[in-house]
């Protein structure tokens, strides 16, 4: 028998909150200090070996569609492994699906973002219904009767796995159906029809090509009504207690996000209620989209944090060529570079989350312009970072038990759904053009007076005011640079000098074609130590 030697211990149990210096700083900075005790408790729960195992089990035993019962009646239900339900219960107990709406106060969206940032590190699939439920509330409020009946259940924290009419349930979850086979980005091509039933309600006929988490209790759905594309609230059960005519054709066989079910559905006269103004479906549902885009930033930042924590933990314990990996100069460069990316993503994500806590002009501009911009760049960086962090673990990183393959497979999805990369960048151009004072507010955020950022920020502000703001072909370059400037400004203002120096030296003109290309003269050790799970 060989002896097991030179292998790191598992990174568990550990507290995802107290072990994360940049998360703790962000929570304080962005005005959610009051939530620290709850986040400590959630961080401890999520980092327990038994919770970590739930994440593995929920992905190994993927959801199964049950279309018919034994007698041939349609049931259209999806069965999940108990691990999925336990993770959902943890998320709801922490209020991650609705706490800022149930108990609004300064820092509420930031506190909730910190919770979901930790949740996604242990299991990302459950984040989907959690994010959609969170994002649905402002849109649901545009249908006061629906809001009155459903918000108490949406605000409740006792997860109820049963598939039954909402009246008998302790809590409710909301999903979203926009994408159709012929088009997801261009929603004007939607063909699902909404026919008035004559009693103020509608009946939906058509399909959705992607409708995730189909066991949610109700969905916000786009459909063509007599006055044009409109937003509808479609529960899974009708008011008279029958299953609504929502047929689940099949579940998608996905690259990652395995624990979560994403379905193809048909509507055969499904009962639905209008939300918002008829004919204004896209602006109505896009409010939900903004929150779910924020969640994509949180999700990808969290994935990056988990990948970095695992990589540094491994490198601290594994020896090669008579030294711990973390002490090998080239590995230190790679780890520091990964840590920079992760901290910059988190800094911008939590700044963005604070904008959802505030109502002044600065907050509105940040929300409108920086949400799609951050979604583009943060989500784009996650797959590259997950891959490089996997390599830090060598061969073991390629093995499922290490969690790295799961992080790697999960990483692209936040970039694709809720508006893919190009669509986000085009939205940034639109937002800059249409948001009054966007230039001035961005100037205020970026212009720190710091010499390291000065020339980059100056040129960027000129580009934002010049013809490039209308140049679709250059929208990715402009969006990337806007995000880099925002991240640099945040790190200069709030991170230790070693982090800010290295970020400016590498991201504002350096070579980022791979990780580990940080130039000489930076305090790499300080950067890695800050990011190490303590
Ligand atoms: C796992 C998963 C779960 C999902 N769950 C849901 C869900 O619950 N509900 C839901 O409604 N949808 C869901 N989606 C669908 C997702 O939101 C869409 O796939 C996405 O919006 C893109 O739409 P599409 O697939 O039709 O691609 P298309 O619209 O065909 O776009 C293809 C590519 O073209 C690019 N593109 C589009 N327009 C332009 C342009 N003008 N200029 C340049 N490039 C352009 C896009 O950026 C994209 O890269 C899910 C997707 C996935 C992968």
| Cα radius of gyration in angstroms | 23 Å
Order of helices and strands: HHHEEHHHHHEEEEEEEHEEHHHHHHHHHH
Helix segment tally: 19
Which small molecules are bound? Answer: flavin-adenine dinucleotide
Compute the number of strand runs: 11
Describe this structure in words.
The chain is α+β, with helices and mostly antiparallel strands and 534 residues long. 51% of the residues lie in helices and 13% in strands. The protein has helices at residues 21-29, 36-46, 49-60, 82-93, 99-102, 108-122, 127-140, 144-155, 281-317, 329-355, 361-392, 404-410, 413-416, 421-434, 438-446, 451-465, 475-494, 497-507, 524-531, and strands at residues 64-68, 74-79, 174-177, 193-196, 202-212, 218-225, 228-235, 246-251, 262-275, 319-320, 323-324. The strands form 3 sheets. Strands 3, 4, 5, 6, 7, 8 and 9 form a 7-stranded mixed β-sheet that branches. A two-stranded antiparallel sheet has the order 1-2. The longest helix has 37 residues, at 281-317. The mean pLDDT is 97. The protein binds flavin-adenine dinucleotide (FAD). Residues 175-179, 183-186, 210-212, 254, 257, 262, 413, 416-423, 426 line the site of flavin-adenine dinucleotide.
């Amino acid at each position: 028998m060989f002896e097991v030697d030179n292998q790191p211990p598992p990174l568990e149990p550990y507290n995802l909150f107290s072990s994360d210096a940049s998360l703790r700083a962000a929570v304080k900075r962005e005005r959610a200090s009051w939530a620290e005790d709850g986040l400590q408790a959630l961080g401890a729960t999520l980092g327990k070996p038994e919770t970590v195992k739930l994440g593995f089990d929920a992905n190994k035993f993927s959801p199964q569609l049950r279309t018919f019962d034994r007698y041939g009646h349609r049931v259209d239900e999806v069965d999940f492994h108990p691990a999925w339900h336990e993770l959902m219960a943890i998320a709801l107990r922490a209020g991650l699906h609705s706490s800022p709406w149930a108990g609004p106060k300064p820092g509420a969206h930031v506190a909730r973002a910190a919770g979901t940032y930790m949740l996604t590190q242990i299991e990302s699939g459950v984040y989907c219904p959690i994010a959609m439920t969170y994002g649905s509330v402002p849109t649901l409020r545009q249908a006061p009767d629906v809001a009155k009946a459903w918000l108490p259940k949406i605000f409740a924290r006792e997860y109820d796995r049963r598939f039954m009419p909402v009246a008998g349930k302790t809590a409710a979850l909301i999903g979203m159906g926009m994408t159709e086979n012929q088009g997801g980005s261009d929603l004007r091509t939607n063909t699902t029809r909404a026919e008035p039933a004559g009693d103020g309600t509608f009946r939906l006929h058509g399909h959705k090509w992607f409708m995730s988490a189909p066991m949610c209790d109700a969905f916000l759905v786009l459909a063509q009504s007599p006055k044009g594309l409109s937003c509808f609230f479609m529960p899974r059960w009708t008011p008279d207690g029958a299953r609504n005519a929502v047929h689940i054709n099949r579940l998608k066989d996905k690259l990652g996000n395995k624990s979560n079910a994403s379905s193809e559905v048909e509507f055969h006269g499904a009962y639905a209620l209008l939300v918002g103004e008829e004919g204004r479906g896209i602006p109505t549902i896009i409010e939900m989209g903004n929150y779910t885009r924020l969640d994509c930033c949180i999700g990808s930042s969290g994935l990056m944090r988990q990948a970095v924590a695992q990589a540094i933990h491994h490198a601290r314990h594994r020896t090669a060529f008579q030294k711990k990996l973390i002490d090998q100069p080239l590995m230190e460069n790679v780890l520091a570079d990964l840590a920079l990316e992760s901290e910059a993503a988190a800094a911008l994500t939590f700044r963005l989350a604070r904008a959802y806590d505030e109502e002044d002009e600065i907050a509105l501009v940040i929300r409108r312009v920086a949400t799609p911009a951050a979604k583009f760049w943060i989500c784009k960086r996650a797959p590259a970072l997950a891959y490089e962090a996997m390599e830090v673990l060598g061969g073991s990183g390629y093995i499922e038990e290490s969690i790295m393959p799961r992080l790697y497979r999960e990483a692209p999805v936040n970039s694709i759904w809720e508006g893919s990369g190009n669509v986000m960048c085009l939205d940034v151009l639109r937002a800059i053009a249409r948001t009054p004072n966007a230039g001035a507010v961005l100037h205020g955020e970026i212009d720190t007076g710091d010499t390291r950022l000065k020339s980059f920020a100056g040129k960027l502000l000129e580009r934002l005011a010049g013809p490039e703001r209308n140049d679709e072909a250059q929208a990715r370059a402009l969006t990337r640079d806007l995000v880099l400037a925002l991240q640099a400004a945040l790190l200069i203002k709030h991170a230790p000098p070693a982090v800010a120096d290295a970020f400016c030296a590498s991201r504002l003109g350096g070579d980022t074609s791979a990780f580990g290309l940080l130039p000489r003269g930076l305090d790499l050790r300080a950067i890695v130590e800050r990011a190490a799970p303590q």
